[in-house]
Design goal:
The structure is a homodimer.
Chain A lengths: L11 H11 L4 E2 L3 E3 L5 H16 L3 E4 L5 E4 L8 E7 L4 E3 L5 H16 L8 E6 L10 H6 L5 H6 L8 H6 L18 E9 L4 H5 L3 E7 L1 E10 L3 E2 L11 H19 L5 E3 L3 E4 L5 E2 L2 E10 L2 H21 L3 E10 L2 E2 L2 H13 L4 E6 L4 H5 L5 E6 L15 H18 L18
Parallel strand pairs in A: 5-7, 5-8, 8-19, 9-18
Antiparallel strand pairs in A: 1-2, 2-6, 3-4, 4-7, 9-17, 9-19, 10-15, 10-16, 11-14, 12-15, 13-15
Helix pairs in contact in A: 1-3, 3-12, 8-9, 10-12
Chain lengths: 431, 431
């Protein structure tokens, strides 16, 4: 094994300056970043990124979904190691969510070029369009994975009713061209993404690197308990059918249900609650609430679904309430490739940087790419677990650690002969 | 004691026709009654009521608060037995809330006149303005009790910002004249009010008459639990400070707190809950909720207040949440006069109509009048406990029973020498 000092490092001042510069594009003076997909700010950021790519002597390109790529050499027959993330933001965002993975990827390519490091597989940086969901989310990565179709593209619109087609046309882009962004899985050796954790674990434990083992699956309900609205002062306690009392009991059962049915990583949240009629002196007649449950184990997730349904049903029956629920979404958990997990871990160890295996509780483009190729993710700490907020922050030291670990991992993965050919996945034809 | 058949009865067809006719004034074709105080419909109903009074050969009058009165004879030195309620409604109302007490009172006066029944104390019907609260509620009875002042009258406005002064001026009335409606407590022998129960007890037990023993006091909080908003997927369960989980635990403690600290009639309701930010995939950072607690025992009500505060505080501390609460209102419980309670009970027994002693969980003008004179209330069943809704209903038979019980009680009370003079209450000067 090489000595620690033998390994190349990122040039941190350059990376820091770029993160700061990109963090000014789309900035509202008072309220953080507004760089939602296909806004002027988002397009300005793409142009800025392409300039940085060319400035580094790399080749920039954009596909039909407006995903921006950077390569050291033109595409050839070999499967490429993709590293990437996104530069679009939610409204009122911080500067690192997505951008960190893209600019660290760019710095890795630059260092490989500068140090003239030979790799078995070509390395490509990719910045995916609309990860954050102005038009639904994961647009660019879904385009690459061949998950889009004309109907999806035609119907995509933002909360103001602007269609994706209109928004892209406003910048001279044709939305249907996203269908051409599909890639042959055999052309992708592996995918690696660095992202801020967006949770409190690394920060609380003081560990700089999270080695993602799996991305959690989830199900999301909109559920309702229906009782009888009545006068709060005149209705005796024993004659009430109070759906909020039922919801409170259900909420109290969450820890037990997770312990009995979920893995150690199971989580459940009630984030939205609405009472009808919602007056202080009226016993509510109806309560609508969201239930968001995630776990990394597909079987446990299924068991959790059954357990939550059973508990809600029992509580409703005992309290003479009606209940119903609608499944708003259901996403299967995804495992990171063990070879990528090990490469990240080895890279951290080589640099003497502490790391921790952990799940990703948030969804990422990596979840989509896992359908095409071996996938892995690296997390860096989010201070206080905050994200999707101008208060989002990661220390510059942690960013430097993360960038160097990615550089290590990229060099290792790009030389791993295991990734030579990828099997064609079901449902994806080769071109 | 007289034979049952000796006692005068109301003329039910007449009463029923009047209830039906008044129930058309302010009716929206699809959505029930809209006869809020000092609207055109409310003024039309006052005029209609005055016509009915004059039609019966009685004397109608209006005081400075626009309370409508009916008397058999002009006022004299003797204290009067007041019977009354209100004819204004909430929006989207049924036809009995308030109107039933007023029209039964009118029928009682008519029967006393028709039967030439002599009474020791003159009987007066009074219909109070704005009981339901377009401008705050209990306006007319508070005017009679001398609880108003120029500032209160000046500041009173409805939810649309219309001032009481403007609304009354629109009908040629001067709001400040309400200050002249104050009465000397010595001029009131006693006050009796019939009202629909607005709760499910009489209907569920199949008893036609509720003999109100006391009107519950209450306190109303707007309370807040503040935690840390976080990503639902990325924040481990043990690292959460979820204020909704805290509220659920608090809600689960309500039955225990009532049992340990309240009387058998203690009630507590959480009717309004708001979560911030209120997104399915975000652990809420803040939850605001109402707590409405009532009891008939003033000491128990005080103990309940302490117990709820203590429990909220303990839950907040254990879960590392902050909490605060604002006391929105606090009303002391009021006892009905035992002589009135007995008179109602005797009247029911005399007619062979079942009765049940019970509390009033809702507030009424009677609660205000209790500050001036011995007070009592009669309840008739609300089917399913429903009120403040076009679905509000009481069977015609129960209404007839209620009317006859009131007639019995009025004759009895108006001849009771005990009510000869009333002590002057503290804070009320005599005129």
């Amino acid at each position: 094994m090489h000595e620690e000092t033998d390994w190349p490092r990122v040039r941190f001042e350059r990376l820091q300056a770029e993160l700061t510069a990109l963090g000014e594009i789309g900035r509202d003076e008072k309220r953080g970043l507004y760089r939602m997909a296909f806004t002027d700010a988002d397009m300005e950021a793409r142009d800025w990124l392409c300039e940085r790519i060319r400035e580094a002597g790399l080749l920039d390109s954009r596909d039909g979904a407006a995903n921006v790529s950077a390569r050291l050499t033109p595409p050839d027959d070999r499967p490429a190691l993709l590293i990437g993330s996104h530069i679009d933001t939610v409204p009122n965002a911080g500067i690192f969510d997505g951008s960190l993975g893209v600019l660290i990827g760019l710095e890795c390519l630059r260092r490989i070029a500068e140090e003239k490091i030979e790799t078995r597989w070509p390395v490509e940086l990719i910045s995916f369009s609309d990860e954050e969901g102005r038009f639904g989310g994961m647009f660019g990565s879904q385009a690459v994975a061949g998950m889009l179709n004309p109907e999806i593209i035609h119907n995509a619109r933002d909360l103001d009713g602007v269609t994706l087609t209109e928004a892209m046309a406003g910048h001279g882009l044709v939305a249907m061209d996203a269908l051409n962004a599909r890639r042959d899985p055999r052309a992708i050796a592996a995918y690696l993404e660095l992202h801020i954790e967006q949770g409190p674990v690394l920060d609380a434990k003081g560990v700089p690197i999270g080695v993602v083992e799996n991305i959690t699956g989830l199900f999301k309900w909109s559920a309702r308990l229906i009782g009888t609205p009545n006068h709060a002062g005149t209705t005796p306690m024993e004659m009430r059918h109070d759906p909020f009392a039922g919801l409170a009991e259900f909420t109290g059962e969450i820890p037990r249900i997770l312990e009995e049915n979920g893995s150690d990583l199971a989580r459940a949240t009630i984030g939205r609650v609405e009472l009808l009629p919602g007056a202080a002196n009226t016993i509510p007649g109806e309560v609508t609430f969201s239930l968001d449950v995630s776990d990394t184990d597909p079987e446990k997730l299924e068991e959790l679904h059954d357990a939550f349904r059973r508990t809600l049903s029992v509580i409703a029956r005992r309290r003479t309430l009606m209940f119903d629920f609608e499944i708003l979404s259901r996403i299967e958990p995804v495992r990171c490739d063990p070879r990528v997990v090990e490469a990240v871990e080895k890279g951290s160890a080589r640099l003497g940087i502490g790391s921790l295996r952990m799940p990703s509780g948030a969804a990422h483009d990596a979840q989509i790419l896992a359908q095409l190729a071996p996938m892995g993710m690296v997390f860096v700490p989010s201070i206080g677990g905050v994200s999707h907020s101008p208060a989002e922050w990661t220390s510059w030291q942690d960013i430097e650690h993360g960038a160097n670990v990615v550089l290590q991992t990229v060099i290792e993965l790009a030389n791993n002969p295991d990734f030579a050919t990828q099997p064609t996945r079901a449902g994806l034809t080769t071109s």
